[in-house]
Specification:
Distance between the termini: 10 Å
Bound molecules: cytidine-5'-monophosphate
Oligomer: single chain
Length: about 325
Amino acid sequence: MLTLLANAKINLYLEIIGSRSDGFHELVMVMQSVGLSDRITLKPLNAPTIHLNCDHPQVPTDHTNLAYQAVTLLQKRFPDRTNRQGGIEITIDKKIPVGAGLAGGSSNAAATLFGLDILWQLGLTRTELQALGAELGSDVPFCLAGGCAIATGRGEEVDVLPQHPLLFAVLAKYNSLSVSTPWAYKSYRQAFGKSYPPLNDTRSLAERRDRVHSGDMVKSIYAADIPGISANLRNDLEKVVLPAHHKVAQLKEIMTSASSIHSGLGTMMSGSVPTVFSLSKTEDDAQATLHAVREQIHDPDLKLFMAAFSSHGIATQP
Ligand code: C5P
């Protein structure tokens, strides 16, 4: 039996560069692991079946769950080595909010790939695991790398960055409010697609990607420049999600003012769904921001969390 902790992530930077021929968007993101984690337990079974249990009612326990798909992907890709292993029981103890743009499903899949590589002694390298992870979802390779990283392509090409000072994030999401990721990207394409480089213009795409690699956010991270990191937070999807969801726009305003009083650092929407985060240098500042937001928004549907930046994505638990 093997137990793993799978961290959530936030996007410190998400720039949409253009369309790709596979229908996805070409992105440049800076992702950061945060210490808000699900516990994944993998238990070998004698019978060749896959059982998935999860304590959260919104998480599917069938083949639509990415962790389940991680098992079938390994079985299909390595039949000789997995056939003699029997089945597996996956138990997910959910702490990462569901549908929150924090890569909960992707990190569960990453932990399952990572854990089965150990249990089934497949001997895969991290690069090999990340290539398999990319087949499951764009965020899975980052979840395997963890820490701080630039993610390009559709998000699956990961370059690890140095871990800048370990900041704290206050995360806020209306429990009942969800935004579909395909809707967010489609709306962005409808609104801003005219500014995309032509599909076959790989040179312009590469130039814009390279510009971000040496851009201000990445420079600030290399320099451990906290005000620089805060000033360069960016998420292009805010341009379509905030006007369509007044409640999220208002949440961002309230968090921005609470955070500017208590920590002086920035506030941004993470990913494509409406989780808003504010950065703080200390745990006390983060607590003060969280309380200030709670005092201004009494809605019990608003869930608030606090998490420290983490230097890893997946860890085994003794
Ligand atoms: O890869 P993932 O399952 O996270 O993507 C979900 C959806 O988000 C895709 O089906 C696509 O509509 C959109 N997407 C995109 N470009 C990306 C990543 C996601 O258009 N780079």
